[in-house]
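Below is how a single chain appears once it has passed through the pipeline. First comes the sequence as given, then the structure the pipeline wrote out for it. We keep one example in the README because the format questions we get most often are answered faster by looking than by reading.
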Amino acid sequence: MTKKSRIIITAVTTAGLLALSGCAAGSGDADSSAAAGGSLVYVSYGGAFQDAQAASWQVPYTAETGTEFENTSPSDMAQIKAMVEANQTSWDVVDTNAYFPNQFCDKYFEKLDLSAIDTSQFTEGSVSDCAVPAERFALLLVYNAETYGDNPPTELADFLDTEKFPGKRASTREVSTGLLESVLVADGVAPDDLYPLDLDRAFAALDTIRDVTTFAENNGALQQLVTDGQADMALIVSARALTVARDGVPIEPVWGETITTFNSLAVPKGAPNAAEAQKFIAFATQPEQSAAFAEASGTSPANLDAKPTYDDLAAKFNAFADDGRTETTQLDAVWWSENINEVQNRFTTWLAG
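Resulting structure:
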């Protein structure tokens, strides 16, 4: 099967997309940069994930420029709003989801100077006026091999088939990372026809598995459910699935159709070191740094020119491999930026019903 990569986007005008290749921050005289020094407050999701970002992006940036970093977590949109509205922004760079920078560009996030970044290196629809992609990942359907033995799930549709594949399901309440898209594809919607999402159909499909599905509070809680054997089948982000597998849990990925998304690097409005923050973003998203983080974290690089080298287990869970194992459809960040409040409210109401 020939691999197809679908990127479904809503039309959006992004000033400055005609970026100049090869002008990323970090080029030039490292000694003069180091003399400038300074510091940045970097915010991400904590744990091994943020440690990998520090090792892959921050350490070489400090070596080249002298800029030091204060790391904090978690990345939280409510806190960004509170800081900006109080004119007390203390964060300089945040790793956030795909749609917040679209939703709140020039309100809670600074516009970036995209002339300093070669945006042609990123997938279509992943760059906005206020953010560039940090890393890519997939929402994988995985199953416990001990549960299903010689009759395992083979496609997304099997997540909804409780007769042929009985057992406990799990996913996350973070609805905007591909859950509804995955359920719609499982229910027969062609990936090219996903947007605008048919919410009635998506929630009707979820109704069919409601009694056998646990919706974890977040990705960390979902990872723990799968690790503890409390789910026979799960929709889980690829890096978390890899961590579960590294812990010795006998999970296997299901290929065929896979929803993918990305996180973004952005600068909160009023950041005290906004200019230096933009230079760091340009540096972190270059091929070498992107590849290093992908190798360390089990994500996939946002920079398409990056060529990470994965170990065998990481390669097994890589939805972006070039071997035709799956067909990927990228989540539409613009659609989500326009509809997240409505969808999240409906999902919360559905969970409570």
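The domain at 40-136+262-313 is CATH 3.40.190.10 (D-Maltodextrin-Binding Protein; domain 2).

See the next section for the split statistics.
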